[in-house]
Amino acid sequence: EVQMEEYGGGHVQPGGSLRLSCVASGFTFNYFYMYWVRQAPGKGLEWVSKIDVDGESPDYIDSVRGRFTISRDNSKNMLYLQMNNLKPEDTGVYYCARLYRGSWDTRGQGTQVTVSS
What we know:
Strand content: over 45%
Number of helices: 0
Largest sheet: 7 strands, mixed
Mean pLDDT: 96
Protein backbone atom coordinates (compact mmCIF):
# COMPACT_ATOMS: atom_id res chain seq x y z
CA GLU A 1 0.00 0.00 0.00
CA VAL A 2 1.33 3.41 -0.99
CA GLN A 3 1.71 5.67 2.00
CA MET A 4 3.13 9.13 2.56
CA GLU A 5 3.07 10.80 5.95
CA GLU A 6 3.97 14.42 6.53
CA TYR A 7 5.10 16.02 9.78
CA GLY A 8 6.95 19.03 11.11
CA GLY A 9 4.35 21.76 10.71
CA GLY A 10 3.42 24.22 13.41
CA HIS A 11 2.61 27.79 14.31
CA VAL A 12 5.41 30.30 13.83
CA GLN A 13 5.76 34.04 13.67
CA PRO A 14 6.60 35.79 10.41
CA GLY A 15 10.28 35.37 9.72
CA GLY A 16 10.42 32.04 11.48
CA SER A 17 11.49 28.66 10.14
CA LEU A 18 10.12 25.14 9.94
CA ARG A 19 11.39 21.91 8.46
CA LEU A 20 8.80 19.59 7.00
CA SER A 21 9.47 15.89 6.54
CA CYS A 22 7.66 13.17 4.65
CA VAL A 23 8.21 9.45 5.02
CA ALA A 24 7.14 7.34 2.08
CA SER A 25 6.50 3.62 1.77
CA GLY A 26 4.82 1.11 -0.49
CA PHE A 27 6.46 2.23 -3.71
CA THR A 28 9.92 2.59 -5.18
CA PHE A 29 10.64 6.07 -3.91
CA ASN A 30 13.68 6.75 -6.07
CA TYR A 31 11.68 6.13 -9.25
CA PHE A 32 9.46 9.19 -8.71
CA TYR A 33 9.69 12.94 -8.96
CA MET A 34 8.45 14.28 -5.63
CA TYR A 35 6.56 17.45 -4.82
CA TRP A 36 5.47 19.51 -1.90
CA VAL A 37 2.01 20.91 -2.51
CA ARG A 38 -0.07 23.07 -0.23
CA GLN A 39 -3.64 24.13 0.26
CA ALA A 40 -4.23 27.57 1.66
CA PRO A 41 -7.50 28.29 3.47
CA GLY A 42 -10.32 28.46 0.94
CA LYS A 43 -8.08 27.66 -2.02
CA GLY A 44 -7.12 24.67 -4.10
CA LEU A 45 -3.90 22.71 -4.15
CA GLU A 46 -0.83 24.46 -5.54
CA TRP A 47 2.60 23.03 -6.01
CA VAL A 48 5.30 24.65 -3.95
CA SER A 49 8.42 22.74 -4.88
CA LYS A 50 9.57 19.70 -6.81
CA ILE A 51 12.67 17.56 -7.03
CA ASP A 52 13.82 14.96 -9.49
CA VAL A 53 14.60 11.32 -8.75
CA ASP A 54 18.28 12.00 -8.04
CA GLY A 55 17.66 14.95 -5.76
CA GLU A 56 18.90 17.41 -8.32
CA SER A 57 17.26 20.20 -10.28
CA PRO A 58 14.94 21.45 -7.54
CA ASP A 59 12.34 23.96 -8.56
CA TYR A 60 10.07 26.34 -6.68
CA ILE A 61 7.17 28.65 -7.23
CA ASP A 62 8.32 32.24 -7.40
CA SER A 63 6.80 33.20 -4.06
CA VAL A 64 9.03 30.78 -2.10
CA ARG A 65 12.19 30.74 -4.21
CA GLY A 66 15.15 31.76 -2.07
CA ARG A 67 13.34 30.94 1.15
CA PHE A 68 12.47 27.25 0.81
CA THR A 69 14.78 24.31 0.08
CA ILE A 70 13.57 20.89 -0.99
CA SER A 71 15.68 17.78 -0.56
CA ARG A 72 15.35 14.02 -0.45
CA ASP A 73 17.15 11.02 0.99
CA ASN A 74 16.46 8.04 -1.21
CA SER A 75 18.20 5.69 1.22
CA LYS A 76 15.55 6.53 3.82
CA ASN A 77 12.56 7.21 1.54
CA MET A 78 12.37 10.70 2.96
CA LEU A 79 11.42 14.06 1.45
CA TYR A 80 12.13 17.35 3.20
CA LEU A 81 11.22 21.02 2.91
CA GLN A 82 13.25 23.58 4.80
CA MET A 83 11.21 26.77 5.07
CA ASN A 84 12.89 29.98 6.17
CA ASN A 85 11.66 33.55 6.49
CA LEU A 86 8.09 32.34 6.59
CA LYS A 87 5.31 34.74 5.63
CA PRO A 88 1.61 34.74 6.49
CA GLU A 89 0.80 33.80 2.90
CA ASP A 90 2.69 30.53 3.43
CA THR A 91 -0.09 29.40 5.76
CA GLY A 92 -1.78 26.18 4.69
CA VAL A 93 -1.77 22.43 4.84
CA TYR A 94 1.34 20.97 3.22
CA TYR A 95 1.36 17.57 1.54
CA CYS A 96 4.09 15.55 -0.05
CA ALA A 97 3.13 14.04 -3.36
CA ARG A 98 4.58 11.81 -6.02
CA LEU A 99 4.08 12.52 -9.68
CA TYR A 100 2.05 9.53 -10.82
CA ARG A 101 0.54 9.23 -14.29
CA GLY A 102 0.80 12.98 -14.76
CA SER A 103 -0.95 13.94 -11.54
CA TRP A 104 -0.02 14.61 -7.92
CA ASP A 105 -0.66 11.57 -5.79
CA THR A 106 -1.05 12.49 -2.12
CA ARG A 107 -1.86 9.96 0.56
CA GLY A 108 -1.29 11.62 3.93
CA GLN A 109 -3.27 13.99 6.09
CA GLY A 110 -0.83 16.78 5.49
CA THR A 111 0.82 18.97 8.07
CA GLN A 112 -0.56 22.36 9.07
CA VAL A 113 1.68 25.40 8.77
CA THR A 114 0.40 28.61 10.32
CA VAL A 115 2.37 31.83 10.08
CA SER A 116 1.02 34.67 12.17
CA SER A 117 2.00 37.02 14.92
